[in-house]
């Protein structure tokens, strides 16, 4: 016998022992886990779903369906199993629900009032709080709610109009017939609006926030990084995340966020010391500072959360509305004529009363929310057992609930030709034919989108000013434009259109 060969075999056996020992522990623990979770297993047994393997569950499905393919997997599972489907990710039970009535029941229940595990990944950038959940979200939300109510938003109208006029002037300066991505102009304007309203900065201060320009351009890349980590399981292994360089990228974003939010706090603390801020005009930063209930870091986290979800999301929806109008000239003409009839063709300010009567614009706005979901999927964690499907299924404690908003908004059972852009689907007579539960762009319940009241008048005011000044044009068919998912849904190659001044 070769002595060297025996020695190599001995080394190999020594190397394999830790692996063998680990596998032995896993298989020894498996019967105990099943006994401990016997109720969860019993309740889940009646739910449809793909066959799960011991220990890894349906993990192999996730291995081959990462990133955007994860949404395609969810869609395929619903086609196969119906409105209810279970997926085991190792020992974690995920229940996907697409029945509209049960979605309302679940999202409005106090038994499902915590975010799901995917939101843990976002905490690296924005910490625990309003968006990511945890013990503080409810109180932190309550503190800033007065800055988002109708009374406060009405006070923001002057800023919305002033910045909308800036957008109109930017569009008028564009070379006629030249295609450009309107998002970059719009996001500059929505950022200014948010800074001067929710953050509470003056116009001059909002132009000189430390690091803001860099972060605005990087926001969508940050979303991409986080979404990839959520859907590519091996990136959740710390060593892999580090060795691929993504941890360094994440750390760089965190530093930029801290730089931005630190300057926000510095500017607002200076203003508050001056004593010229009354309660009615307080922004979110002022309210957090005045409450005395948050640490410095918590204020930074919540400020970043509310800042980016307001300015970036509003910019994408505004850009989508403008792009839809560019591709749908008949609808653009309807919207323009209605604006002239209600407000006039001059540069009159847009008021809340005006917006109530812009019905065609509202239909295009709603269709943009349907076509490009603000959140493709949302997750919740079941804290108390809850029964769905007319008593047929009971969701066990600890279950991760998955609500596929993007898929729900494209379900042909509720939407005629769902892959087409059709604002007329929001005509009153068509809305009456559908359950209100099939359209939930801002989610539902206690954890719904805080900025829903804020976003609508901002977006519509920007669109009114743009459409009054320029005619929008675009080439090709809007339905042929590729979509991209990075937490929210957007057009992969931007919001490209052309403008020319109205005569």
From TrEMBL:
GO cellular component, one term: endoplasmic reticulum membrane
Keyword Transmembrane helix in record: yes
Taxonomic lineage: Eukaryota, Metazoa, Ecdysozoa, Arthropoda, Hexapoda
Keywords: Endoplasmic reticulum, Heme, Iron, Membrane, Metal-binding, Microsome, Monooxygenase, Oxidoreductase, Transmembrane, Transmembrane helix
Function: May be involved in the metabolism of insect hormones and in the breakdown of synthetic insecticides.
Localization: Endoplasmic reticulum membrane; Microsome membrane
Name assigned to this protein: Cytochrome P450
Keyword Secreted listed: no
Organism of origin: Bombyx mori (Silk moth)
């Amino acid at each position: 016998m070769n002595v060297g060969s025996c020695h190599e075999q001995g080394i190999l056996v020594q190397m394999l022992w830790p692996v063998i020992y680990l596998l032995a522990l896993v298989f020894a623990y498996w019967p105990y886990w099943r006994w401990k979770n016997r109720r969860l297993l019993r309740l889940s047994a009646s739910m449809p779903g793909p066959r799960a393997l011991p220990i890894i569950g349906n993990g192999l499905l996730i291995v081959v369906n990462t990133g955007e393919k994860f949404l395609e997997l969810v869609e395929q599972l619903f086609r196969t199993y119906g409105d209810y489907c279970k997926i085991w990710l190792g020992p974690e039970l995920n229940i996907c629900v697409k029945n509209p009535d049960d979605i309302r029941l679940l999202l409005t229940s106090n038994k499902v009032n915590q975010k799901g595990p995917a939101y843990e990944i976002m905490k690296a950038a924005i910490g625990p709080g309003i968006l990511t959940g945890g013990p503080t979200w409810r109180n932190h939300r309550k503190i800033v709610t007065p800055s988002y109510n109708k009374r406060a938003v009405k006070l923001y109208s002057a800023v919305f109009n002033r910045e909308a006029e800036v957008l109109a002037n930017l569009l008028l300066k564009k070379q006629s017939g030249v295609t450009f991505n309107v998002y970059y102009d719009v996001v500059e304007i929505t950022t200014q609006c948010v800074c001067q309203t929710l953050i509470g900065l003056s116009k001059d201060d909002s132009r000189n926030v430390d690091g803001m320009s860099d972060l605005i351009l990087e926001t969508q890349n940050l979303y991409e990084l986080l979404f990839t980590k959520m859907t590519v399981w091996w990136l959740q292994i710390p060593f892999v995340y580090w060795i691929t360089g993504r941890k360094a990228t994440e750390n760089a974003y965190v530093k930029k966020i801290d730089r931005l939010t630190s300057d926000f706090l510095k500017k607002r603390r200076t203003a508050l010391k001056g004593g010229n801020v009354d309660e009615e005009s307080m922004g979110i930063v002022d309210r957090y500072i005045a409450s005395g209930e948050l640490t410095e870091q918590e204020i930074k986290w919540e400020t970043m959360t509310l800042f980016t979800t307001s300015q970036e999301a509003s910019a994408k929806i505004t850009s989508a509305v403008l792009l839809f109008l560019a591709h749908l000239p008949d609808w653009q003409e309807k919207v323009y004529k209605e604006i002239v009839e209600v407000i006039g063709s001059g540069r009159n300010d847009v008021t809340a009363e005006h917006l109530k009567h812009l019905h065609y614009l509202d239909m295009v706005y709603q269709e943009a929310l349907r076509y490009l979901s603000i959140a493709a999927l949302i997750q919740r964690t079941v804290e108390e057992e809850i029964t769905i499907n007319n008593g047929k299924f009971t969701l066990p404690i600890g279950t991760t609930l998955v609500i596929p908003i993007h898929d729900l908004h494209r379900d042909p059972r509720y939407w005629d030709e769902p892959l087409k852009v059709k604002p007329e689907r929001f005509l009153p007579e068509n809305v009456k034919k559908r359950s209100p539960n099939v359209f939930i762009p801002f989610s539902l319940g206690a954890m719904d989108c805080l900025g829903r009241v804020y976003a609508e008048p901002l977006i519509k005011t920007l669109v009114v000013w743009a459409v009054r000044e320029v005619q929008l044009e675009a080439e090709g068919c809007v339905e042929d434009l590729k979509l991209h998912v990075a937490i929210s849904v957007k057009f992969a190659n931007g919001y490209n259109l052309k403008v020319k001044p109205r005569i």
